[in-house]
Amino acid sequence: MPPLSGYPIVEERSLRPPQRRLGFLVRRDLAELPETPVGTVLVFAVNGAYKAYTEGEHLRGSEEAVVRARSVSVVYLRGRQVTVGVDIPSQDMGYAFQVRATFACRVTDPEAVVASGVEDAATILRNHLLDDAGLMRLGVTRPVEEVHLLSVEVTGRVRAYLEFCPPQLDGVSVALVNVALLPPNDILVHGQNLKRLKWSKESKELQWAIENRDVARIEEIFKRGAEATTAFGVSRDQLMMTDAVGITREAQESRMRSLSELINRLPDGSLDFLPIDTQRLIDRVMSSIVGGEASFIEAPRNGERLEIGEGRAAEDRGSGPRRIGLEDLDD
């Protein structure tokens, strides 16, 4: 089936005068008539009048209107949506808004359609919108970027205009379905590019924020020492458990070596004046050497630096290492 070329008149064809035989009109060859797709009817023009043969009728070629007709038209009967576009000027020279209106059309009288020559409903409806001078002036005060603000005004204007000045299409009923206002294509592309850049910036900022929080969390883990850092590596499957034990052990030994070096560098007798439990110090050093839990040595929370004359007072505190004061140096 060939595609429909127009609406509501699909095709028009002139017909040759019929031949006479013995003074009588003969039957017209049906091959002269155009094809009738589904949903169409033939309308014959006969001496200024029009005769439609409705869908489903089978012509024989001997019908008076068929024999005497000088032309025939194919008219589409079924409903169809017709979309037309009209450009209205904007405030920006060289740019225009496009008003796109969609109409629901249906042929109610095919003979009237052919009689009035309604060949292309889209052209008629478009010209009708162009006749609205108010619509043509509606966009001149707006830049093309403000299409969303102008859309409501244009929609209201088109609906009001068509209600008070409906288009004249003889034999065709017309109803407005939708009105849309579109900016120029390059403005749409520009706006889409800006939106993509904005989304990209927001995505990067969110990604950076997540990375910063992750870095801060890892930094806190590193500040907690080698054990926490090693545990973090194990949790991320970056270290084997056996390697982690070796690293932790090496870190403990390194701390103890550093502590030993620090003690060796102190002046003789300095430990006597530091709030350090000598026995605990020895226990932890030995624990680090032979294995087991080891950590930095911390002074007792209630430990205080002894003043001169308090060295012997520690004997009353029970068993354990005795703190030595300056007065004991004479013994």
- The helix content, as a percent range, equals 25-40%
For the termini, the CA-CA separation is: 126 Å
How many separate domains? 3
**Element-by-element helix/strand order:** EEEEEHEEEHHHHEHHHH
State the low-pLDDT regions, or none: 305-316
Structural class per helix/strand content? alpha+beta
Q: Give the strand line-up of the largest sheet.
A: 1-6-4-5
Count of alpha and pi helical runs:
9
Overall geometric form = elongated
| Tally of DSSP β-strands | 9
Mean pLDDT: 78
Main sheet overview? 4 strands, antiparallel
Taking Cα atoms only, what radius of gyration do you get, to the nearest Å?
50 Å
- Strand fraction equals 15-25%
Protein name: Band 7 domain-containing protein
Biased composition (Basic and acidic residues): 307-319
Organism: Streptosporangium algeriense
Region (Disordered): 307-331
What does this structure look like?
The chain has 331 residues and is an alpha+beta fold. The protein has three domains: 9-76, no CATH class; 80-183, Tetrahydropterin Synthase, Chain A, CATH 3.30.479; 226-330, no CATH class. It contains nine helices and nine strands. A four-stranded antiparallel β-sheet has the order 1-6-4-5. The protein has a three-stranded antiparallel β-sheet with strand order 7-8-9. A hairpin with a 6-residue loop joins β7 (80-89) and β8 (96-107). α6 (185-223) packs across α7. The protein is elongated, with a radius of gyration of 50 Å. Residues 305-316 have low confidence and may be disordered.
